[in-house]
Structure formats: structure tokens, C-alpha cells
Amino acid sequence: MEHLLALTVGILFSGALFLMLSGELVRFVFGFVLMGNAVNLLIFTAGRLSFVAPPLIGKPGTAPATPVANALPQALILTAIVISFAMTLFLLILLYRTYAQTRTLNTRQADFLSESAGDDTGADTPEKDHS
């Protein structure tokens, strides 16, 4: 089972890397989300899928009567989900602001590099004092 999950993590990582290097900002955000899911699956896989030994032992020489789940990978994954959700929202806001400023999301276009490509009103330019 671990081999199948390791292969899945590899496929997710390679797909995420392909999306992130494509040059489109929307694909970058999708690649970022996919990379976060791959990392969560990697942490889950590293936390052992079988019940070989219990992760927590009370007194020396005693063990729980039933199999227990490893609590550390679960806590790490829960924290990573919350952080990746916040980072995804931050990236979507940056994506919106980038589109509002440049009117393009393709990083290969020349308009993407100019800061005033979407500035039609000139509101950010300082007023000249004619007095």
C-alpha cells in the first residue's frame, strides 16, 4: 500500500510542478493547491499505514489494547490544511489584483511586466501643481 501512495505522491508532485512552471498564473494557483495535497498525502504516508507499534505508550512495558492511530501526522495535516487554505485565498487575491492591474494573467506577455498596463484613469499618478 505504501508503494501505491508513494507513486501517487510522485504523480501529484510532478503534475503540480508542471502547472506551476507553465507561465499562467491561474495554473500556478492550481499547482500550488495540488502541491499542498501532495505534501499532506506524503505526511500521512510517513505516519505509517499499518499498526506495527503503538505511537503512544503509557507506562513502560504496557501498550494499548486496541490499535491506535498516530496523532502527530494527523495534527500536522490538519494544520497544513488550514495554512494551505489561507495561502490559497491569499494567492487568489493576488491573482485578482494582478489581473486588475495588468489585464493579463499570462507571464509571457509584455503587458504583464508593466505596472501601469491596466491603469486607464491615471489615478495613481501625482497631480502637477500649476501655481
Summarize the structure.
The chain has helices at residues 2-20, 25-46, 71-102. The chain is mainly α and 131 residues long.
- Main beta-sheet annotation: none
Radius of gyration: 24 Å
Which CATH class is shown? Mainly Alpha
CATH topology: Helix Hairpins
Q: Which percent range describes the beta-strand content? A: under 5%
Helix content: 55-70%
- Helix/strand/pairing category: mainly alpha
Q: What is the H/E order?
A: HHH
**What's the overall average pLDDT, rounded?**
80
Discrete helix count: 3
Total domain modules: 1
Poorly predicted residue ranges: none
Q: How many DSSP E strands? A: 0
Spatial gap, N to C terminus: 78 Å
- What's the CATH architecture? Orthogonal Bundle
InterPro entries: CPA3_antiporter_subunitC, NUOK/Mnh_C1-like
Organism: Desulfotignum phosphitoxidans DSM 13687
Keywords: Cell membrane, Membrane, Transmembrane, Transmembrane helix
GO cellular component, one term: plasma membrane
How does this model look, in words?
- The termini are far apart.
- The protein has one domain (2-50, 69-112): Helix Hairpins.
- Helix content is 56%, strand content 0%.
- The mean pLDDT is 80.
- The chain is elongated and about 70 Å long.
- It is mainly alpha-helical and 131 residues long.
- It is built from three helices and no strands.
- The protein has helices at residues 2-20, 25-46, 71-102.
Q: Secondary-structure blueprint of this entry?
A:
Layout: H1 2-20, H2 25-46, H3 71-102
Helix pairs in contact: 1-2, 2-3
Keywords: Cell membrane, Membrane, Transmembrane, Transmembrane helix
Subcellular location: Cell membrane
Transmembrane segments: 6-22, 29-51, 71-96
